C-alpha cells in the first residue's frame, strides 16, 4: 500500500477545502440557521412535539444528514471530476498507485470535509435548541459511515459525469428529493399509510431514522435494519467502484 | 546493458476501432535522448500514453528497467516521469505544493532540499509561492517538467515540449533537456519539428500513421539517407548546360554562374569525379566548390513519401 500517495492526495484535497474555508462553511451554517428559523420556530410553534421531542430538536438529525450527504457527494464527485476536466488526471494514471489508493485519498478527503460540516451544523444547532444525545458513539459512527458511503457514491458520479450539468444532476434530481422525502423534517409515522409503504423504498429513510435514534432513542425503523441498509449501500458503491477501476470505465481509453 | 525501455509489438486500437499504433517495437538505452518525429496524428501521444499507463495497450508489451508495465506497474511507473503535451495544472494551487503533490503520488517523502533543487534547476524557485494561474505559458511548462522530475525518474517523456512555444523558450527547453541528459536521465521526446530532433537527439525514430518507419542514430541517419548538393561556382557564367553535362541530377542556377549537382551519399559512387572531369572537358573554369547536406526535413519528406508509394 502506497500510504505516502494516499496522504498526498488527501492533503492536496484538504488544501483545496481550506483555501475556500469561508465559502465551505458559511453556506451550510447559514442555510441550517434558516431551516431552524423557518421550520423550527415558525412551523415548530404549531407542531409542538414529535415522538416526545420538540420539533426544533427533532429536525436536527435530518438537517445534519441533509448537509452531510449532499456535501459528501458534491465534494467527492467534484474532487475526481475536476482532474478529469482540467486534464491533471494524467498524473494519477501514470503514478505507481492502485485504484484503491486513489479512492482512499479522494473519498477520505471528501468524507472528512462532509464530517467537518456535519459537526459545524451540530454546533450551530446547539445555539437554537436543547439537544442531548443519547447514544453519542452510535451518532458518530453513523455520521462517519454516512460520510464515507456517500463520498463513495459521489466518487462514482464524478467518474461517470461527462460535464458539469451531469455532475449537478444526480445530487439535484435524486439525492435532494430522497433526503427531503426521507423524513428529515417529519416522522414517517406522520404520513398516510400508502406513503409509509412507499417510503420504505427510500434508502435515506433508514439512514435518517438510524441517526435520529442515536439522538433520541426513537426511530421509524429498527436500528438493526438501518445499519444493514447503510452497509448494503456502502457495499453496492464499493462493488461499483471496483468494477469501474477494473475496466477503466470513463478513465482509461 | 539491457535497454531501459523495451517496447515490443505494441498495438493500440481506440474504442471506435481506429488503430493508432500498428505494432511498434523500440528499444531505448539508458542515458540517451531519442526523438520520435512524426506529423500530427502519427500516434506519438498514444505511444507515450500507453507506456505511461494513461491508456491500455490492445496488444504487445512494454518493460521499463525490466519491469512489465502491466504486472509490475508500480516498479515500472516509479521510473518514469511524464510531461504531457497539453498544459494541465490546477490553476489555484501554488507551484511548490503541486510539485510536492507529484512527489508524494510516487510514494516519495517530501524532501524539501530535493524540491528546491528541482525548482532552482528550472528557474522556478522565485515563483514557488505563486499560484499556477499567475504564470506565463512557458513557466507553466516548466512546472510540468518540475512535477515530472519531482520523484527523480530515470526516464523522462516529453510530449511535444516546444509545440507553440516561441524561439527563445524553445532554446531554453533544449538547454534544460541537455542538462537533464548530463544528469543521466534518459529522455524520450516527441516532436513534429525536424530541427528540434536534429538539434538535441542522439537517435531519431520516424513515426507516421501508427508505424515506426525507422529508428537510427542521428548522424547515421543523416549520412545514410542524406542527399548532398555540390555547388560548382563558375568564373564565367554560361547560358545553357553543355550537352555532356545534361542529366536529371544537374541544374544550372538562374544567373548561370553555378552548377548544382545533387547526389546521394548512400550510393557506391557519388559521381563527383566524373562530373568535375566533364566540367574540365567543357573548358569551364571553377571559382569555388561547396557541398551542402540536406536537412532532416528533406529526409523526412522522402520517407513519408516513399511510405506512401509503397502503400499505393
Ligand atoms: N481517445 C481517442 N479516441 C479515438 N481516437 C484517438 C484518441 N486519441 C487519439 N486518437 C487518434 O489516434 C491518432 C493518433 O493520435 P495521437 O497519438 O494523439 O497523435 P500525435 O500525438 O502523433 O499527434 C489520431 O488519428 C487521433 O485522432
Ligand atoms: Mg500528440
What does this structure look like?
The complex is a heterodimer of chains A (253) and B (312). With 253 residues, chain A is mainly α. Chain A has one domain (3-247). Chain A has helices at 3-19, 21-47, 55-86, 89-94, 99-128, 136-160, 164-180, 193-199, 203-216, 223-247, and strands spanning 49-50, 53-54. In chain A, strand 1 (49-50) and strand 2 form a beta hairpin. In chain B, helix 6 (167-182) links the parallel strand 7 (155-159) and strand 8. Among the domains of chain B are: 5-79 and 153-223, Rossmann fold (3-Layer(aba) Sandwich), CATH 3.40.50.300; 227-293, 2-Layer Sandwich (Alpha-Beta Plaits). A 6-stranded mixed β-sheet of chain B has the order 6-7-8-3-9-10, sandwiched between helices. In chain B, 34% of the residues lie in helices and 28% in strands. With 312 residues, chain B is an alpha/beta fold. The longest helix of chain B is centred in the middle third of the chain and has 16 residues, at 167-182. At the A-B interface, helix 1 and helix 4 of A face helix 2 and helix 3 of B. The structure holds adenosine-5'-diphosphate and magnesium ion. Magnesium ion binds next to helix 1 of chain B. Magnesium ion binds at residues 44-45, 85, 159-160 of chain B. Chain A: InterPro entries: ABC-2_transport_permease, ABC2_TM, ABC2_TM_bact-type, ABC_2_transport. Chain A: It comes from Sulfitobacter sabulilitoris. Chain A: Pfam families: ABC2_membrane (PF01061). Chain A: Keywords: Cell membrane, Membrane, Transmembrane, Transmembrane helix, Transport.
Amino acid at each position: 500500500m502506497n500510504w505516502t500517495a494516499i496522504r498526498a492526495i488527501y492533503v492536496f484535497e484538504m488544501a483545496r477545502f481550506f483555501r475556500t474555508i469561508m465559502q465551505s462553511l458559511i453556506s451550510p451554517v447559514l442555510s441550517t440557521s434558516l431551516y431552524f428559523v423557518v421550520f423550527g420556530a415558525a412551523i415548530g410553534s404549531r407542531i409542538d412535539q414529535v415522538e416526545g421531542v420538540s420539533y426544533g430538536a427533532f429536525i436536527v438529525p435530518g438537517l445534519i444528514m441533509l448537509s452531510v450527504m449532499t456535501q459528501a457527494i458534491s465534494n467527492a464527485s467534484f474532487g475526481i471530476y475536476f482532474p478529469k476536466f482540467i486534464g491533471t488526471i494524467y498524473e494519477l494514471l501514470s503514478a505507481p498507485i492502485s485504484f484503491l489508493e486513489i479512492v482512499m485519498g479522494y473519498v477520505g478527503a471528501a468524507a472528512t470535509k462532509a464530517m467537518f460540516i456535519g459537526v459545524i451544523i451540530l454546533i450551530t444547532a446547539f445555539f437554537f435548541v436543547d439537544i442531548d444525545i443519547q447514544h453519542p458513539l452510535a451518532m458518530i459512527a453513523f455520521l462517519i459511515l454516512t460520510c464515507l458511503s456517500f463520498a463513495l457514491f459521489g466518487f462514482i458520479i464524478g467518474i461517470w459525469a461527462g460535464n458539469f450539468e451531469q455532475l449537478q444532476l444526480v445530487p439535484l434530481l435524486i439525492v435532494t428529493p430522497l433526503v427531503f422525502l426521507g423524513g428529515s423534517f417529519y416522522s414517517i409515522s406522520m404520513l398516510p399509510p400508502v406513503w409509509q409503504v412507499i417510503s420504505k423504498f427510500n434508502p435515506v429513510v433508514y439512514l435518517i431514522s438510524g441517526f435520529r435514534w442515536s439522538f433520541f432513542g426513537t426511530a421509524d425503523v429498527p436500528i438493526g435494519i438501518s445499519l444493514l441498509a447503510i452497509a448494503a449501500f456502502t457495499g453496492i458503491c464499493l462493488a461499483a467502484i471496483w468494477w469501474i477501476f477494473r475496466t477503466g470505465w470513463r478513465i482509461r481509453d | 546493458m539491457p535497454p531501459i525501455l523495451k517496447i515490443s509489438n505494441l498495438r493500440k486500437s481506440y474504442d471506435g476501432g481506429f488503430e493508432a499504433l500498428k505494432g511498434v517495437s523500440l528499444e531505448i538505452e539508458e542515458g540517451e535522448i531519442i526523438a520520435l518525429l512524426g506529423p500530427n496524428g502519427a500516434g506519438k501521444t498514444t505511444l507515450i500514453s500507453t507506456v505511461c499507463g494513461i491508456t491500455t495497450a490492445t496488444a504487445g508489451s512494454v518493460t521499463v528497467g525490466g519491469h512489465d508495465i502491466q504486472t509490475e506497474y508500480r516498479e515500472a511507473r516509479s521510473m518514469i516521469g511524464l510531461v504531457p503535451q497539453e498544459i494541465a495544472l490546477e490553476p489555484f494551487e501554488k507551484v511548490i505544493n503541486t510539485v510536492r503533490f507529484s512527489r508524494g503520488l510516487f510514494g516519495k517523502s517530501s524532501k524539501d532540499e530535493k524540491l528546491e533543487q528541482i525548482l532552482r534547476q528550472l528557474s522556478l524557485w522565485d515563483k514557488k509561492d505563486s499560484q499556477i494561474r499567475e504564470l506565463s505559458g512557458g513557466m507553466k511548462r516548466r512546472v510540468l517538467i518540475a512535477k515530472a522530475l519531482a520523484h527523480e525518474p530515470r526516464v523522462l517523456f516529453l510530449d511535444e515540449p516546444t509545440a507553440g512555444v516561441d524561439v527563445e523558450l524553445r532554446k531554453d527547453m533544449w538547454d534544460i533537456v541537455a542538462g537533464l541528459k548530463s544528469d543521466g536521465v534518459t529522455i524520450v521526446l516527441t516532436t513534429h519539428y525536424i530541427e528540434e530532433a536534429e538539434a538535441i537527439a542522439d537517435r531519431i525514430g520516424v513515426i507516421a500513421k501508427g508505424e515506426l518507419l525507422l529508428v537510427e542514430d542521428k548522424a547515421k541517419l543523416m549520412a545514410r539517407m542524406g542527399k548532398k548538393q555540390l555547388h560548382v561556382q563558375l568564373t564565367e557564367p554560361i547560358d545553357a548546360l553543355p550537352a555532356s553535362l545534361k542529366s536529371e541530377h544537374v541544374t544550372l542556377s538562374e544567373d548561370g554562374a553555378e552548377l548544382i549537382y545533387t547526389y546521394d551519399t548512400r550510393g557506391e559512387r557519388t559521381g563527383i569525379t566524373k562530373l568535375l572531369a566533364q566540367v574540365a572537358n567543357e573548358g569551364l573554369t571553377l571559382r569555388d566548390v561547396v557541398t551542402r547536406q540536406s536537412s532532416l526535413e528533406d529526409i523526412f519528406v522522402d520517407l513519408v513519401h516513399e511510405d506512401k508509394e509503397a502503400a499505393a
